[in-house]
Amino acid sequence: xxxxxxxxxxxxxxxxxxxxxxxxxxxxxxxxxxxxxxxxxxxxxxxxxxxxxxxxxxxxxxxxxxxxxxxxxxxxxxxxxxxxxxxxxxxxxxxxxxxxxxxxxxxxxxxxxxxxxxxxxxxxxxxxxxxxxxxxxxxxxxxxxxxxxxxxxxxxxxxxxxxxxxxxxxxxxxxxxxxxxxxxxxxxxxxxxxxxxxxxxxxxxxxxxxxxxxxxxxxxxxxxxxxxxxxxxxxxxxxxxxxxxxxxxxxxxxxxxxxxxxxxxxxxxxxxxxxxxxxxxxxxxxxxxxxxxxxxxxxxxxxxxxxxxxxxxxxxxxxxxxxxxxxxxxxxxxxxxxxxxxxxxxxxxxxxxxxxxxxxxxxxxxxxxxxxxxxxxxxxxxxxxxxxxxxxxxxxxxxxxxxxxxxxxxxxxxxxxxxxxxxxxxxxxxxxxxxxxxxxxxxxxxxxxxxxxxxxxxxxxxxxxxxxxxxxxxxxxxxxxxxxxxxxxxxxxxxxxxxxxxxxxxxxxxxxxxxxxxxxxxxxxxxxxxxxxxxxxxxxxxxxxxxxxxxxxxxxxxxxxxxxxxxxxxxxxxxxxxxxxxxxxxxxxxxxxxxxxxxxxxxxxxxxxxxxxxxxxxxxxxxxxxxxxxxxxxxxxxxxxxxxxxxxxxxxxxxxxxxxxxxxxxxxxxxxxxxxxxxxxxxxxxxxxxxxxxxxxxxxxxxxxxxxxxxxxxxxxxxxxxxxxxxxxxxxxxxxxxxxxxxxxxxxxxxxxxxxxxxxxxxxxxxxxxxxxxxxxxxxxxxxxxxxxxxx
Length: 792
Known about the structure:
By secondary structure, this protein is of the alpha+beta class. The chain is 25% helix and 28% strand. The chain has 16 helices and 34 strands. Strand 32 (772-777) and strand 33 (780-784) form a beta hairpin. This is Alpha-L-rhamnosidase N-terminal domain-containing protein.
């Protein structure tokens, strides 16, 4: 057990004791929060700007007389680091956050130490002007703080040495928001720089900057150090890649594994296309020997391309070319040199384009280390329809690839935590893994982006500000989601001021003449239907025109939808007057929308007061906000689902389409409404795309929503009380004959089995200890108790 774990257990025990023990506990906690003696260190002044592109190596040697049982350090960097002890990589970090929550990792490195001389080292890199869109930075820096006096020998100060690695330069081919590729020159690379026997006599002493300051300590500088709230990323090696085609050399089967080194003769030009057979996120590492002055270009792609946009079936390669990020390696002729980019790559296909000169090149191995948030698949779903089980599998892979140190909208293009995607991702995390830590972090991250206006940025952490006002409303829904699934009142209560700030902004945008939202500033994205195209003159991409002109029923009703969740939260936290005010506002918006936007003849909600446009989105929000009364909801949903003239909801907004379907009492149609996902599987996708073809991204977080609905809608498992203290189970099997599933709960596991025969439902529901609930199906209701409840 690590010193840090023991310390935490000690603190817990101390909180239950009195007198001197309680004082000791507080003293220990005070030391941890206030007595950081380590300083941020950076590159020496003659090495270049600490703000620009640069890959920097830091190292420090120290001696110990014996290996201790524990050796705990806290460490962080700006922007990114990779940390080594005696040549072994220990961790990567820090977990992305903001300047007000700059995360540090706490690591016990005792197992990596040895008696005598030891070497701790870190690569710290800054992509400068090409930094990822999700990466915030103050200036290039590194910090290590020993947990106690024993570990203080590791503290960053002027005894650390630093050198700028000039072997790296940015590869700007296919540059996207995730940063550049890496070009690595073997001749100038400082091989074995992180080992004790490396000669660092020419290295400079690091420049010492301000002392590290934990958050909440009267921080004078913007980087407020905060403990990492999520675990380290999962890491495991991916299986062999298949050789799909080659030019200039005859190779087949798996690439390299189980064979001697692949020899590329001198004066050769070779191209090898590799297929992982599924999309993944991984750190590639290519081990080579010889090949002096050769060139290896590595291209990573989600799919092969027919032309600039179209990909066709993802399993097919004939007549297609690769297109994507490129790393370039220039071997210098050494033995078993490992070339690896600094950041992970997302790919299904990889193409190696190799050119040799006078020396043969030996390819020994091509490892790919998977990386991602360490979610465990505790939820399960199976049924008599194999297609739904494939949707579950691909959906979970989608959710996993869109989760790292933050949630990602997509791993290939942006890796940004957008609130619209993140709300859906949080629910999937709760239902399939039961792990709420990344959802908590997301709520915190996004809340810390609050603007002077009082609303939130649409995505955070982020280098560049972007405001999508409707996403602030989804943050309120997400906070409400968390409250319903986790008994964590203090956490939820701490964010009520942000909730109020958001609603205050929207309340002042209501036109008193119409009772609906007037013209709204910023980018009021709703969905990606082709009928709402991008226009360079106006921010129309995914935006209903009335959002700009004013009187948008969609956005007004989305506000009403969020007001309902906000009122529920405020009421439970004893802000009854404000809750009542927001309930009244919800009702008045609904009434205004019904009076001015609802078309009685068509039986549908128009997008605007002039009834010039109609979409599924308007009626969806009309149902969810309860502006459309319950006795009309089913009839309206029938029309919005059958009227082909309406602007349709795409993959993203179908999450809300299904919420409306369920609210209207038509959830039995869900299993027959997944054609978009089935089509993607038929097209060879192993994850779900951003939108119908042609889609930019082959893996997009919001498209994984079936992994929520298969458990929450088909199996009908939802909370019946805040904190999931009670459960409500109302299955909707539709055309399925049987379903068997499980969902993690804080008390244990909820398991269900349902079977339909001749219109009758039988099966069983097993609840964990201390969880009670209600089962409902077609007018039948019965109480559920812990243990197995047989349905007959």
